[in-house]
């Protein structure tokens, strides 16, 4: 049986081939080859209330080999499509930085990495697929732990299985895990947590078995491959996702980006978990649990005002908790629960918030 | 058979008990209890040419409960020793941040985290053991991959074994791995590399089997638990350690800290790998391999001048390569090898440098 990951890879290669074929057919018809894709300009980024994320509007850009101004990005884009196909076909992975240097092997000119990053995002917009699908992964890695058995699809490991509860420090979420099939799990939920130290505490306190959960360390703002993994676990295993962050505006935004995505990824749909829930640390938890706090900085407060105007934050707990933070002008952290003992967070706070989440 | 990790834990508890007993015996003799340990003041940090690391000199500080100025740090230190014993006895781990908040559960007053960090370092100096030995781990995690079978000593996993080549994205180096026993390996060397993307490339290109190596991602400046792991692999498995970094002054210093430790850890001996070798990217490799470069900033150049005066950098390749960087005024990165193809770094550069390392 062909795995979903294998067919995904074949679909991608077919898509890339289509784009290449279009160039040849343009040439056969004596036309300058061109490619059209959704515009990523700020004016074309709109918030979709139904999807609860930023998406691109109707405007498209067309790059034509017949326009002297377009020749450079046109060539760069097609080189990248070629390179992406090569990566996927040879099962090799790369990073944004690495792609910048790899272009030099082909005498394709990028002034600097921001220019090659931009073209990589263009290719994402052309094929509506995140760059991880063509094997360009983030440098950052976060981690996972829990009772889920995966089956690898990467060369040398095809068909091998691994249960992700065998190493209590956690498994890196890299290319092999991102493309693995999920075979079996006893978990009933996913808990994503912002910090490595707390991730370890959750494993030590057996949160995975007590709450039948898979635990993910987002290591701050979750890397894209981690968001992608959260989405796959959510969709493929049909598991709810709960997010725990520090009790400040940055923590709230870590949760928001997992749920609704970022402005910069408005051209993508595969990085969001729209039904994930941010369960804490809320501003109101700071009051309710009498957590130790530290004062906010001016920058923190400015950030709250910015997010209050952001459409993703309209209504619900999002706006409400921003207001609480603004009123408090103080912030707290996940570790603050240790004031009441090392296991207060896992023994008291977590179950109370999971219970509360049912009504969110 | 008692494992080396179990006896280490018992030794630590015995050491902590001794310190506590000393307080009681002082009291029994109607003396104000006191504790003496090596001074960590700048004037007492000296470079040891034989050990090739900074160490503490002969000066000691004495904290006495009879001195009103000492009562605060004295009390904090003994609370920490109590808390450390609790962590180790209950097999729970913590972080610097978490200890700061935990103190509040005991009404032990720390103004801020820097104050509690300072006391943690004091306890390290008192017992000459890194804080990881009393279960205070860094928040940051790096990763490992390779054919080495480990046996856990943490609760719930005691006696279980795992081969660290079963997950190609790598295993986090956290408390469980740090305290595991090494049971078996076919590896003949350790390769530590600065970047996650390259770590993945090395696994993809089978560096572990082609060069019989264990691969470690230091994720930039190696976290202390990673330096500790490198030392254990080096000593216990008798494997040489080779370090690959970006070709700049920060890369050179990442290697130096693994080998010779830092000024801030002059009171410790267990975080260095004195016979590890920095095999690249050297300034002279930038020239030899015609790598793409970017210009250094003023800050980079200032840093070179600083390190040129550092005793750790006296002689050998250290000083030589600083001079090359200074002459070039340009820097390069590990990814720069991709200019010559994705596998140039593993197929050509790595074997050439490993060969060269034999004569270092």
Q: How much β-strand is present in the residues of chain A? A: 15-25%
Largest sheet of chain A: 6 strands, mixed
Q: Which spans of chain A of ≥5 residues are poorly predicted at pLDDT below 50?
A: none
Q: Pairing-aware structural class of the strands and helices of chain A? A: alpha+beta
By oligomeric state, this entry counts as homodimer
Tell me the domain tally of chain A: 2
How helix-rich are the residues of chain A, as a percent range?
40-55%
Number of strands of chain A: 15
Largest Cβ-defined interface: A-B, 53 and 53 residues
**Mean residue pLDDT of chain A:** 95
Folded structure, characterized:
The longest helix of chain A has 25 residues, at 4-28. In chain A, the strands form five sheets. In chain A, strands 8-5-11-10-12-13 form a six-stranded mixed β-sheet, with helices on both faces. The radius of gyration of chain A is 22 Å and the shape is globular. The first copy, chain A, is of the alpha+beta class and 360 residues long. Chain A folds into two domains: 4-134, Arc Repressor Mutant, subunit A, CATH 1.10.10; 186-357, Dna Topoisomerase Vi A Subunit, Chain: A, domain 2 (3-Layer(aba) Sandwich). Chain A has helices at residues 4-28, 71-89, 96-102, 113-127, 175-178, 196-204, 207-210, 224-236, 249-260, 283-288, 298-308, 316-328, 344-357, and strands at 34-38, 45-48, 53-56, 60-64, 143-145, 148-151, 161-163, 171-172, 181-185, 189-193, 213-217, 241-244, 277-280, 294-295, 330-331. Chain A contains 13 helices and 15 strands. At the A-B interface, helix 3, strand 8, helix 5 and helix 6 of A face helix 3, strand 8, helix 5 and helix 6 of B.
């Amino acid at each position: 049986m062909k795995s979903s990951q294998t067919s995904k890879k074949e679909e991608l290669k077919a898509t890339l081939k289509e784009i290449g074929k279009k160039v040849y057919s343009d040439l056969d018809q004596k036309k300058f080859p061109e490619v059209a894709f959704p515009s990523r300009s700020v004016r074309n980024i709109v918030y979709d209330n139904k999807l609860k994320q930023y998406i691109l509007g109707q405007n498209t850009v067309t790059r034509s080999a017949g326009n002297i101004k377009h020749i450079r990005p046109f060539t760069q884009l097609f080189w990248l499509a070629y390179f992406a196909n090569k990566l996927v076909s040879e099962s090799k992975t790369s990073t944004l930085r690495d792609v910048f240097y790899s272009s030099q092997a082909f005498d394709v000119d990028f002034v600097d990495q921001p220019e090659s990053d931009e073209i990589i995002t263009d290719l994402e917009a052309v094929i509506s697929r995140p760059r991880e699908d063509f094997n360009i992964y983030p440098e950052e890695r976060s981690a996972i732990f829990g009772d889920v058995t995966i089956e690898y699809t990467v060369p040398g490991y095809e068909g091998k299985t691994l249960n992700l509860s065998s190493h209590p420090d956690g498994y890196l979420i890299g290319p092999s895990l991102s493309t693995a099939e999920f075979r079996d799990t006893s978990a009933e939920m996913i808990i994503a947590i912002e910090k490595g130290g707390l991730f370890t505490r959750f494993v030590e306190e057996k949160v995975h078995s007590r709450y039948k959960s898979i635990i993910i360390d987002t290591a701050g703002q979750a890397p894209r491959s981690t968001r992608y993994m959260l989405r796959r676990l959510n969709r493929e295993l049909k598991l709810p996702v709960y997010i725990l962050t520090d009790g400040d505006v940055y923590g709230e935004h870590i949760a928001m980006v997992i749920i609704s995505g970022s402005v910069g990824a408005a051209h993508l749909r595969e990085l969001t978990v729209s039904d994930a829930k941010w369960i804490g640390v809320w501003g109101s938890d700071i009051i309710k649990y009498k957590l130790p706090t530290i004062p906010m900085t001016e920058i923190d407060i400015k950030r709250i005002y910015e997010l209050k105007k952001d459409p993703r934050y309209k209504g619900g707990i999002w706006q409400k908790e921003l207001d609480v933070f603004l009123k408090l002008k103080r912030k707290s952290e996940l570790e603050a629960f240790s004031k009441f003992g090392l296991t207060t967070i896992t023994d008291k706070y977590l179950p109370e918030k999971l219970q509360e989440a049912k009504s969110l």
